[in-house]
Amino acid sequence: MQLTARQIEAIEAVEAHDGDLYAAADSMGISQPSIRKLLSEGRRRGERPRSLAQLARGEAPREDLMLTSFSRRGKDEDGNPFSESWRPANWKKQSVHELARRFVASLSDLPALKKIKGPNRCKSRRGTTNLLKLGDLHVGLLVWAREAGHNWDLRHSESILHAAVSYLMGRAPQAEKLIIFNAGDYFHVDNTRFETEASGHKLDADGRFPRIAETGLRMAIRMIEAGAATHPEVEFISSDANHDPMSNIWMRLALREAFRNNPRVHIDTEPAPFHYRQVGNTAIGFTHGHKCKWRDLPEVMAADVRDIWGATRYRMWKIGHVHHRFVQDLRGCSVEALRVLPPGDAWHVGAGYRSLRDLRLETIDHEYGPLGEDIFPEAMWEGLAV
Ligand SMILES: [Fe+2]
Q: Are residues 134 and 195 in the same domain?
């Protein structure tokens, strides 16, 4: 593969600035999107830039810098065809599940969080459950205001989620339990190529993947801690989704390990596509919504958990994926799609997608069903300094 002189210059600038795209772009006198564009070929190959630069200069790439195999064909100085290939020193075809398994094996050293002080007993109310409905968060999404009308990066994700959760937890009605539903697409990217796994769509992402993973995990821990400080019991349910199928697995397992000394916190690590809970007289189904048509979900619930369906008066699904809100009453069951906190990226804004953004906390009475909800709307964070 041939790289242009400008692409090599971009790669070497990123190397010289320890991977900091902003500093590298500054040193070249170009914008951050421009340097990302120059690096896009390297990202497409999922390779470390330095080994690409070596290859482009006609050198054999260093094995310890390679993430994928290389091959090259051409003609030598005498016009004779040649081909050569390289593989990383520890090259081995690894499945997503194998990588996830290795990650989990490394969690044994993860320090457990201290016990979180819960609410005063008189502040909890039997027979009431709160439900924090977290629509697609897309941690790692990068949006530029001049392209898409809003600026958004990791700092916005973290500070606005923190503000929204603090606001809603501070106003939450007394309840015996909090369910936090992560509707999926919690992370915007799931690999260092910054492409979706299934379709290979290019994604605008902020910074390097380890930074996105670290920030996202910290945000989830803070959110659960805020829930545990205001509710006697917290359950975290997370949906498999199209943007972060692997990260969803490792984050749930990491959270389970982190909260292992907090028996009031339960992290659901089941990999099933649909999750069901019975909350008194109410049945709730949770899923991302990228596989099953939402109109079919009531029948799916009736087939999957007929005992819960028969024992409840109110039934509802909570889904993500579409990034806008609707609530549809169907036979015996409603379906609610959740709004999200982040803005649309350049592609979606260009395609005409527009919707309001918010985070909602719903309160469910175990006898009378859903009684109401509190909202943290986007107008509330517009004045926040990020
Ligand atoms: Fe999404």
A: yes
Residue 63, pLDDT > 90, answer no
Residues 174 and 264 in one domain: yes
Same domain flag for 59 and 115: no
Question: CA 51, CA 70: separation in Å to the nearest integer?
Answer: 10
Q: How far is the CA of 38 from the centre of ligand 1 (A)?
A: 27
Measure 210 CA to ligand 1 centroid, in angstroms.
20
Model pLDDT, residue 251? 96
Q: How far is the CA of 295 from the centre of ligand 1 (A)?
A: 19
Q: Which structural domain, as residue segments, surrounds residue 256?
A: 111-380
Looking at per-residue confidence, does 1 or 111 come out higher?
Answer: 111
Please check whether residue 328 is in contact with residue 241, taking contact to mean a CB–CB distance below 8 angstroms: no
Which residues, by Cβ under 5 Å, contact ligand 1, an ion? 136, 185
Whether the pLDDT of residue 156 is over 80: the answer is: yes
Rounded distance from Cα 276 to ligand 1 centre (Å): 21
Residue with the larger pLDDT of the pair 70 and 318: 318
Measured distance CA(268)–CA(249) in Å, rounded = 11
Give distance in angstroms: CA of 68 to centre of ligand 1: 29
Residue 167 CA to ligand 1 centre (angstroms)? 24
Instruction: Give me ligand 1 centre to Cα 29, in Å.
Output: 34
Q: Is 180 exposed, middle or buried (0-12, 13-18, 19+ CB in 10 A)?
A: buried
Residues 126 and 225 reside in one and the same domain: yes
Domain end residue (candidates: 86, 121, 145): 86
Whole-model pTM: value is 0.72
Q: Give the distance (Å) from ligand 1 centre to CA of residue 323.
A: 6
299 has a pLDDT exceeding 70 = yes
How many domains does the chain contain in total? Answer: 2
In percent, the amount of the chain with pLDDT more than 70 equals: 81
The CATH number covering residue 262 comes to 3.60.21.10
